[in-house]
């Protein structure tokens, strides 16, 4: 008996090749990790073109074309909806041929458009949607199978009536080699003009008030005694443009604001002392996993998802309580043993590196075949 045919998979994400948010990093890595095991095509918004990587023409939400052709206004929706609609239409000739058994997406509007196009045109592929937004379960887009990346969101979905056999839990993966550095901590600090004994607080997250609560982190560091350095590394494409100025007003020379390429984030992990994350919720928190796997102590809000992500009570505090983070950071600055209690390197490496997760993703894809 011949072995079952491998599923032919299309992975689609408009932001791949254009931006470096969590959505895009997950799907870029997923394609690179699984392409050796399955026939795969990556449909993306930018970057190099190959036989397996297709760059589609569409109206990117932050691009110049959408300013001159504001389709979203005609739709009464957001630029992201126009981006996903035009991306889906550009993708349609490729997936209408029947060459793909599974179409895997992570952008909710893209999932909705492709699902309805499939029904209208009677296409045959199976739709796999990765829930990477922490949206209410009632708002999930239609799909054949739902990939959850957090135990907390899976539990919430089941509690809200979604059948458990319609969903699979597989967390996001990370690549340890991406964060390797050739210089040690002292040399990295010297390169950036930071004294060896200065306490460095790192944040790798988009700069915004609503989700990442960057303003809260700034305010908590501003209360600290001494001369700590807050290094904010993150984009403003989903942010508040005034936050860099707000940080400099509150902290003066005690803050740096950057948005380094992904390949340079490992150096920031290596030179920092701690990485607090002020958000009270996350769909996953890939940067937290990457920092923890690099050996950097990570501090998160005390909530079900973060307890599952990094199961160490020493890493959790109430980020909503003014002064709580300030007090903890001052303890960490004064006592290396307190920092060591919050190192989760072994757990993060064992649980989240791609080599450990690849079999689970392979099983997920195979499970969608009849």
Automatic annotation (TrEMBL):
CDD domains: GT4_PimA-like. Residues 184-341 form the Glycosyl transferase family domain. InterPro entries: Glyco_trans_1. The keyword Glycosyltransferase applies. Keywords: Glycosyltransferase, Transferase. GO terms for molecular function: glycosyltransferase activity. Pfam families: Glycos_transf_1. Belongs to the glycosyltransferase group 1 family. Glycosyltransferase 4 subfamily. This is Glycosyl transferase family 1 domain-containing protein. It comes from Sphingobium cloacae.
């Amino acid at each position: 008996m011949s072995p079952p045919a491998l599923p032919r998979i299309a992975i689609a994400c408009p932001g791949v090749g254009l931006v470096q948010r969590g959505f895009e990093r997950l799907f870029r890595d997923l394609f690179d990790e699984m392409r050796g095991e399955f026939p795969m095509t990556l449909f993306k918004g930018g970057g190099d073109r190959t036989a397996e990587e297709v760059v589609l023409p569409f109206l990117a939400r932050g691009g110049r074309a959408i300013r001159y052709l504001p389709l979203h206004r005609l739709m009464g929706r957001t630029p992201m909806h126009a981006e996903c609609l035009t991306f889906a239409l550009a993708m349609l000739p490729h997936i209408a041929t029947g060459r793909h058994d599974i179409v895997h997406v992570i952008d909710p509007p893209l999932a909705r458009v492709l699902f309805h196009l499939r029904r209208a045109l009677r296409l045959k592929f199976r739709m796999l949607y990765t829930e990477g937004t922490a949206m209410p379960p009632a708002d999930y887009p239609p799909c054949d199978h739902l990939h959850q990346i957090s135990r907390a969101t899976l539990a919430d979905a089941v509690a809200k009536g979604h059948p458990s056999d319609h969903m699979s839990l597989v967390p996001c993966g990370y690549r340890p080699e991406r964060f390797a550095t050739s210089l040690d901590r002292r040399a990295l600090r010297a390169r950036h003009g930071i004294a060896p004994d200065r306490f460095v607080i790192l944040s790798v997250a988009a700069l915004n008030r609503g989700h990442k609560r960057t303003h809260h982190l700034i305010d908590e560091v501003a209360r600290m005694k001494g001369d700590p350095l807050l290094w904010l590394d993150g984009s403003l494409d989903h942010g508040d443009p005034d936050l860099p100025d707000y940080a400099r007003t509150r902290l003066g020379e005690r803050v740096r604001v950057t948005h380094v390429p992904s390949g340079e984030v490992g150096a920031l992990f290596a030179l920092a002392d701690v990485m607090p994350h002020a958000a009270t919720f996350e769909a996953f928190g890939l940067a937290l996993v990457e920092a923890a796997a690099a050996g950097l102590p990570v501090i998160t809000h005390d909530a079900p998802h973060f307890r599952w992500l990094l199961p160490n009570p020493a890493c959790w505090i109430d980020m909503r309580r003014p002064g709580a983070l300030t007090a903890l950071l001052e303890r960490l600055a004064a006592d290396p043993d307190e920092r060591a209690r919050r190192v989760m390197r072994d757990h993060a490496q064992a649980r989240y590196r791609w080599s450990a997760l690849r079999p689970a993703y392979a099983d997920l894809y195979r499970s969608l075949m009849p």
